[in-house]
Amino acid sequence: MTLSFYSALLAAALLAQPEPKSFIEGTVVDAISGAPVARAAVAIRYARDPAGSRIVTATNTQGTSGITGDDGRFHLEAAPEVPFRVEVQKEGYVTSGESGMPGGPVFSISPGEGKRGVVLRLALESSISGRIYDPDLQKPVRRMDVQAFRKTDFRGELSWIPVQHAEPDESGRYTLAGLAPGQYRVLFQNPDLPRLRPAPLQPGPKYLDYRTVYYPGVSDSESAQTFDLLPGSRIDSIDMTLTRDPTYCIRGLVRLDGPPQRVAMTTKSPWAAGMIHYVLESLPAPGPFEICHLPPGPIALAAINETNTPSLRRQALYNDVVVDKDIEDVRLQLLPGARVTFAVHSFNLQDPSKDPLWSDLKPAIEIGLSPMDRVTRTGETPTLVGTDGSHAIENVFFEPLQLSLNKLPDGWVLRRLFYNGQPVSERRFELNSAAPTHHLEVLVAPAPNSLSGDVRSRGKAEPGARVLAVAEPVDANALIYATKRTTSDSNGRYTITHLAPGVWRIVAIPASELWQKARDLLLAGAGEKVDVPESGSVFRNLDPGR
Fold first, then answer.
1. Is the pLDDT of residue 175 over 70?
2. What pairing do the DSSP bridges indicate for beta strands 466-471 and 502-509?
3. CA dist 273 to 126, 128, 189, 191, 212, Å?
4. Residue 496 — very low, low, confident or very high, per pLDDT cuts 50/70/90?
């Protein structure tokens, strides 16, 4: 046989061999002791379907699975170049992590390669339990939804997220089990609050009911008691005594022109457990309505017809009402909003007809209006077209609004906003229902400036420090919608570019702190004041300890 024949055989044999598998292997350990955890179930969960389907389901994102051995080790084959997480489950344990949420690090492995030495940590689960009792009725309370809220750091933002809930048994006893280590607050929520339904326009019965409260009986989360749970801890006897208090009703009539439609009602009120908006339900209109089981306090209602066409949307608002008794004969007339015209021009331009923004740059700026105190979007969000930057948005409701600008030319910022000739804040303004027309003048300009400096603590560079800047005057809305933020590099240097000219307040905090602390400091008046010009660089060194 010739050499070429043997070479062909060898090539064929090599081609017949299966391609090397991609894999991940590692150990599941106890988060505290570091001891291996045997008989833990491990499974790959892909971020997308490895077969390429655009439809993501619980089935097509499941990968290989296995059980750890006595040494806690696992070995799983994985599809190459498809991001995935490794899910770990073991009875009596929970995933250990800063967020306390399911998940973990994301892996992506090249074809034929493997990821070794991965350590996945489990912590002994903790629990909170207790009993709910009504001393007036001398019996346990069963109709409550008990929720555990965990303190969570998500990308530097601090929040309290519900992670577990329980219903009391016949004796009023509840158990919030399967909790990861961390800080918790407990909410006792009445599932019957509130209730919207069609009803005849006549007084109904008086209602006594339990209020939604945090332990130990407060209505706001900041006053709630915080529980620190260590791995495997059991906190018992978190007992609550609840008594029924008077609740009230709002009754009235929903009116609208045209054919009958369904109308959704949303509300903003204290019982929403920290949520700004709460969707009650929807009901047929025109017709009577009744909202009962309302606790005392301020409330704001919005009634909106259910349609996906913004031009056909109608709204009625019932705001700034304090509920301290039954409120009868409320009339909600659904009406269209107003037509708002726009003109977007360069700042300090003498002749708008010769605006280089539209004659030279010709950007496709997107402009929109968003409600501040409601979930449903108002009006439309069009793209500005044409050569003069003028446009209009139809059906804008008379409620607090926020202006949004997208796709501005690189380096340009919003300089001024005028409503019917008067300066207003883009962060929060409201149309005047008595005005015959509604015109917004949006003035933008390039801002070739920068604010930079070093973050140093006790003379040493502070890498990864969180730097937050906000335009004066500082208010809560500004901290959410009009901030610039960055982190310092390995040498402690930070840079923020393209700031609207004017006075800014800037603060730095260590990398170990949360953005929430920076916002709290700014609201308290802390930070450095910096006068930012239209162009040029401003240097300001910061100390995260101040």
1. yes
2. antiparallel
3. 24, 20, 8, 12, 8
4. very high
Closest C-alpha among 149, 152, 175 to residue 162: 149
The rounded distance, in Å, linking the Cα atoms of 285 and 260 is 6
Q: Could you report the per-residue pLDDT of 299-335, keeping only the tens digit for each?
A: 888 888 888 777 788 888 887 788 888 888 889 998 8
* Contact (CB, 8 A) for 541 and 535: no
CB neighbours of residue 536 within 10 Å: 9
What is the CATH code for 338-446?
A: 2.60.40.10
Q: What b/e sequence results for 21-58 when a residue is b if at least 16 CB atoms lie within 10 Å of its CB, and e otherwise?
A: ebbbebbbbbbeeeebbeebebbbbbeebbeeeeeeee
Percent of the chain's residues with pLDDT above 90: 32
Strand partners, 261: 285
Q: Evaluate if residue 417 carries a pLDDT over 90.
A: yes
Yes or no: say if 383 and 410 are a contact pair by the CB < 8 Å rule. no
Burial class (CB in 10 A: 0-12, 13-18, 19+), 153: middle
Q: What order do you get walking across the sheet with 438-446 strand by strand?
A: 390-396, 338-346, 438-446, 412-419, 422-423
Reading the block at residue 121, the tokens are 């940590």
The average confidence (pLDDT) of the chain is 83
Q: Which CATH architecture has domain 126-241?
A: Sandwich (2.60)
- 3-class DSSP assignment, residue 396: strand
All structural domains of the chain with their residue ranges: 21-124, 126-241, 338-446, 449-539
Residue 442 pLDDT > 90, yes or no? yes
Which of the four pLDDT bands, split at 50, 70 and 90, describes residue 526?
A: confident
Element (H, E) at 148: strand 145-154
Q: How far apart are CA 107 and CA 124, in angstroms?
A: 25
Can you tell me the distance from the alpha carbon of 2 to that of 219, in angstroms, rounded to the nearest whole number?
90
Share of the chain above pLDDT 70, in %: 84
According to DSSP H, which parts of 45-192 are helical? none
Q: What is the CATH number of domain 449-539?
A: 2.60.40.10
What CA–CA distance (Å, rounded) separates 347 from 350?
A: 9
Pairing of strands 173-179, 157-166: unpaired
Q: How far apart are CA 386 and CA 404, in angstroms?
A: 19
pLDDT of 343 above 60: yes
Euclidean distance between CA atoms 516 and 542, whole angstroms: 18
Judged by phi (left if over 0) then psi (alpha if -120 to 50, else beta), residue 169 lies in beta
Class of domain 21-124: mainly beta
Degrees, nearest 5: CA angle 46-52-56: 55
How far is Cα 478 from Cα 356, in angstroms, rounded to an integer? 30
Q: Is the peptide bond before 298 cis (omega within 30 degrees of 0)?
A: no
